[in-house]
Amino acid sequence: MPLKYRISIILALCALSIWALIPRNVTVRERDSNGALQDVKHRRVPLRQGLDLRGGMYIALEVDDSRQKIPASDKKEAIDRALKTVRSRIEGIGVSESVVQKQGDDRIVVQVPGIQDPERARKLVEEQAVLKFEITDKTQALERALPRLDQLVKQRGLVAKASGDTAGKSPTTVAKGLQGLLKAADTTKSDSAKKLAAAKGGKDSAAKADSVKLEPGGAFSSLLQQGSMPGEFYIAMDQIPTLQTYLADSTVKAALPPGKDLVAGTDSVSLQGKWYRAYYSVDSKPIITGDYIKTAQPNTNTMEGGTVVEFTLSNEGGRRFRTETGRHVGDFMAIILDDRVMGRPPVIQSAIGTRGQITMGGKSLTDAQDLALVLRAGALPVPLRVAQLQTIGPSLGVDSIHKCITASIIAVTLVVLIMLLYYRFSGLLAVGGLVLYMLYTLAALAGFDAVLTLPGIAGFVLSIGIAVDANVLIFERIREEMDRGKTIRTAIDEGFRHAMPAIVDSNVSTMLTAAVLYQYGTGAVKGFAVTLIAGIAASLVTSIFVVRTFYLLWLQRSRGAQTLSI
After folding, report:
1. When comparing pLDDT for 163 and 386, which is higher?
2. How many whole angstroms separate alpha carbon 232 and alpha carbon 265?
3. Mean pLDDT calculated for residue range 414-421
4. CA distance linking residue 401 with residue 406, whole number of Å
5. Are 145 and 257 in contact (CB under 8 A)?
6. DSSP class of residue 306?
């Protein structure tokens, strides 16, 4: 190849590399905290810093088999569907340069650099966000099943000794106190209640179901205190573990009324210094789910204060919701998110269409934004659990950068000094090739949109040694040819030709090892592998093509040279 073409190729590669490494402003479409799309300008800096340099959070998510059994053959598909939902949620936080990717066939890795609230990010990716609207039971099915439940609890030896302030106090007395408290709460519209916005045209035709008097004595029934609406019960906080123990027994759980679920609520009330948690008996079949939600936005309630989440259903969802709520006018509808009844169920005053709202009560605007975000992104197709969590502070990242830069400077300086002292002029040409090698490698990493991590920098420094190793092989072969009495031009040509097989074999074997690390390694190991592969490719270009071009340029400018300092 003519020398002028060689020089043109090298200069073109330098220009492309410099262009790839220049920071620039890019405009992207992102959703704001209200879910609206807008154009946002970001400063795109090539070679983004990873978590170990910049600080942030690393989360590894796996399918939670304890909450839902997923066949091994279906896990890959479930992870693929969950990946899209998790990515939408993370992007909705507004943190730029976050990474959400699948690792293997059963794990999702989330990397969020520079996040200010790690607990919020963890909650967003782990929350399943299954939203359902279900009617509370007005048939008193659970009350009629209590004798059977009491009998089973006793037969299976699950009876726990009564403890706490309810001992020696009649459940009927406690229930009356609770009902009076709840009526007062209804009048003042407790901040912890979340209500669905229904059309105000119809009159309140909801008639409270007559409270059923739960007779004391049974182990199961003694835990429940009747509420003031159909299907509502209250349980003392210190008795909730006992109830959970009973319901964990498969026989007791199977004896619950068919087609009904007993779901815990988010509301709690205090009576005479003792706190009670609300539970609701609801229809198992929801009238509608969150799958039909089209948009959801946080807002403030100017009438009652506090925050709300306004949602809009799709056309199909609106038709179904209008039909179902029209059939249940006067009934109470529980809004259930992840098996929790959100506040006290509101009464359906009339048929509801495509628009509604969930009142957040005393919760912050951030909580409303998070709820709107998970509703927009959709429910996770499978429950996920956090398998690994690492939080790295920014101060640790700065310290790592300083140490990494120091180590890299020392390593490169030693390599340059050895090459100059041992090979002199040829070593100077190798150092020139080494400068271009580093430029090409960094540009290649920027082109891959790679994230710079500590293992990646280690791979970069290691590849510098590999690049110099190729030059060492070439220089030694040139020495051997010159010792045999050949001319400088012939010695250079023969040196490159004879060193080529060894250079290619060593670099290809190293590249295959790096490819295996990339295929089967974790995030940090993959960063090392990518940097190593890019470095090896650049070293082949610089040691074989660039350094030889330098030699040819020197030979052209110093015609008749009889000696070569090598």
Report:
1. 386
2. 10
3. 90
4. 9
5. yes
6. S
Residue pair 392/71 in contact (Cβ under 8 Å)? The answer is no
Q: What per-residue confidence (pLDDT) applies to 188?
A: 38
State the average pLDDT over residues 521-537.
79
Orientation angle between helical segments 547-557 and 394-447, nearest 10 degrees = 60
Query: Comparing 453 with 443, which gets the higher pLDDT?
Result: 443
Angle between helix 72-93 and 365-377 (nearest 10)? 140
Tokens of 441: 């490698």
3 state DSSP class of 98: coil
Q: CA angle at residue 58 from 56 to 61, to 5 degrees?
A: 150
- Determine contact, residues 237/268, Cβ cutoff 8 Å: yes
Six token digits for residue 133: 């609207």
CA-to-CA distance for 202 and 132, rounded, in angstroms? 24
Query: Where is 288: in which H helix or E strand?
Result: strand 288-289
Q: Which residues fall within 8 angstroms of residue 70, CB to CB, at 6 or more apart?
A: 63, 78, 382
What pTM was computed for the model?
A: 0.54
**Whether 134 contacts 240, CB under 8 Å:** no
Dump strand ranges (E) for 105-216: 107-113, 131-135
Spatial contact of 133 and 282, defined as CB atoms under 8 Å apart:
no
Backbone φ and ψ of 111, nearest 5°: -120, 120
Average pLDDT (161-184) is 46
Rounded average pLDDT over 334-342: 84
As a whole number of angstroms, the distance between CA 358 and CA 313 comes to 13
The separation between CA 279 and the C-alpha centre of its own chain, rounded to angstroms, equals 31
CA distances from 63 to 69, 269, 290 (A): 9, 35, 21
What percentage of residues in the chain have a pLDDT greater than 90? 8
Give the confidence band of 417 by pLDDT, cuts at 50, 70, 90. Answer: very high
Q: How far apart are the first and last CA of the chain?
A: 25
- Evaluate whether 376 touches 88 at the Cβ level (below 8 Å): yes
Q: Position of tokens 């959070």?
A: 57
